[in-house]
Amino acid sequence: MVSREGMESITERLSWLENLYFPQALQSDVKLPSHRKPILLDLLSRDVALFLERYGSQLTFNELQEFDALKDDYEINWHLKHLRSVMSPTSEELKLRSVTVKNRRRAYLNKLIHDGHYFSEDAMREREPYLHHEYVGKYQDPIGRSMARPGERWSETLMRRSEEAFFIAKIRGEQQRLGVDERDWIGNDRNQGEEEEEEEEEEEEEEDEEEEAKKADGAAHSAEMGLDNPDATNGAHSTTVQHSEGATLSAVDNPDATNGAHSTTAQHGEGATLSAVEMQDQMDQFTNIMQQKFLLGEDNEYLDYSKIDNDETLDDHWQREASHDAEEKYFAED
Are the C-beta atoms of 36 and 30 separated by less than 8 Å? Predict the structure, then answer.
């Protein structure tokens, strides 16, 4: 048996721990340490194996020694060996632990993929906005993310736009940190487009003004010539009409002359985007990187890896997978 002094010391220390597990039926009775200790002491007196199963991970190495007198009990001895291997594992146990953790994370990854949310494009973009931009976002139409969606309330649209502004700020901040050329910053392409449009409008206005000035000068000159030589005016008018009709006929007979400019512009615009197949390839690469980040333990801001790595229920999944792979290999060899 565990000494009475040892039992008192162990249960006293445990009673002061926060978030200590207790069955649902006892939750209302364990608000204070003075309430917890009698319950812990009662369980330790009645069922040592169950006590070790529930609270063994909270015990110190010296406290475990209090249970050595009960090593002849198979169940108690199993718990003691397991707890000590966790506290001070051998090199072989460390290797086994590493393999187990990898398999459990792989099993949990499959659950997350099946669930469909964690590795959705929106969820991944929320976790890694800059990485999403580099692989996918810069090839997408940014206007679509700000537009109202079917069935969406105006307040939801405003909230989404606010979130979008936050993501853009994060992406731009990362671009600045990495020393990306300012011309390549997110949002700058739209600003440059607006500036180019303004410049084109200004040039068109200047050309129109120049054309009007030339027409005014020509009209004045023609008027002067007409006073001196009326026949010259009529000839000029006839020539003008002929040229005008010739220009119209030319456009009708050869429509490709005007369509060519539009075609070139359209091709240039399409060249700036990716095909559906190329976009899917970019998305697959981005998704694969995000899945590898999860397996390497880099998502600790969003997930509790200690729960995943110690979840024995995940062993069933990867063991079934291993068995299935072994069967496929066996039949493939036959």
Answer: yes
The whole-model pTM stands at 0.54
Rounded CA separation 119/137 (Å): 16
Contact criterion met (CB below 8 Å) for 42 and 30: no
CA gap 128, 118 in Å, rounded? 12
- 28-43 pLDDT tens trace: 778 888 899 999 999 9
Rounded to whole angstroms, the Cα distance separating 98 from 297 reads: 13
Can you list the positions of beta strands (E) in the chain? none
Q: Count the Cβ atoms, other than its own, within 10 Å of residue 103.
A: 17
Q: Of 57, 31, 56, whose CA–CA distance to 43 is shortest?
A: 56
Q: Over the stretch 274-316, which tens digit does the pLDDT of each residue have?
A: 899 999 999 999 999 999 999 999 999 999 999 999 898 999 8
Going 92 to 93 to 96 to 101, the CA torsion angle's sign is: negative
